[in-house]
Amino acid sequence: MVEIAKLARTLDNAAHRARATRQLSENTKYTLDDAYDIQAASIQRRLDRGEKRNGMKMGFTSRAKMVQMDLNDMIWGRLTDQMMVEDGDTISIKNYVHPRVEPEIAFLLKRPLGYPCTAAEALSAVDGVAAAMEIIDSRYKNFKFSLEDVVADNASSSSFVVGPWCPPDSNLDNLGMVMEFNGRPVQIGSSAAILGHPVRSLVAAARLTAESGERLEAGWIVMAGGATAAEALRPGVNVRNTVEGLGSVAFNVTA
Ligand code: OOG
Ligand code: MG
């Protein structure tokens, strides 16, 4: 028997205290289904502390990310209101273990989205699209993990920041994306890196949530996944992601 609650507590504590922990798979044999159960239980602890669920994130939807982390399967995680950083705000590196940032695109849903759905149906549930960034912060030492380990650890999700919402019918096809540290480009990519088109990530998000017995809800944000490899954060950087036609989103990092 895999001790779901105990493993969930280990990861929740590691996130809460910003202290790295060993990969669960070093001591425990568990399946991918167990991993999603551990994730759900660890997020439930956050909800029990008063956080509110407000979306979901997709992971490994681009080749750049799969290559960087040496994993080839799409994964997903859960977002809460506490994870949200306001556009332009400052985060303290102290609250993280070893954070990295990646340029993304976010969707805001105006109505629930079940599965099956076509790309057009998915887009008809969208209220806005925006330039976004995800701050990932694996709770495992050295940012190293198996597929099960990273799924249990809420797909490394730690924080996310979303720029001004643009109209839902904005073109998302092959948009240039530039992520800068203090005005210097550190990652350059295209929205096409995200499964060929970010709406495919939204459809996949609907499918994966449905498969786990949940549903994408009205008001939720869906993060489509990093278009490029992630960059390590350090104090003193201003981080900006600019997406062609969608504008930009930024935050600052202090010690
Ligand atoms: C896992 C999370 C992947 C993405 O956008 O592909 C992810 C990780 O790289 O630690 O968030
Ligand atoms: Mg991501």
Structure, described:
The protein is α+β, with helices and mostly antiparallel strands and 255 residues long. The protein has one domain: Fumarylacetoacetate hydrolase, domain 2. The protein is built from six helices and 13 strands. The chain has helices at residues 4-17, 32-48, 63-69, 119-124, 147-152, 198-211, and strands at 53-59, 75-80, 84-85, 90-92, 100-109, 126-136, 157-162, 176-181, 184-190, 221-223, 231-232, 238-243, 247-254. Strands 1, 2, 3, 5, 6, 7, 10 and 11 form an eight-stranded mixed beta sheet that branches. It has a five-stranded mixed beta sheet with strand order 4-13-12-8-9, with no helix packed on it. Strand 12 (238-243) and strand 13 form a beta hairpin. The chain is globular and about 50 Å long. The structure holds 2-oxoadipic acid and magnesium ion (MG). 2-oxoadipic acid is lined by residues 59-61, 65, 69, 102, 134, 136, 138, 150, 155-156, 225-226.
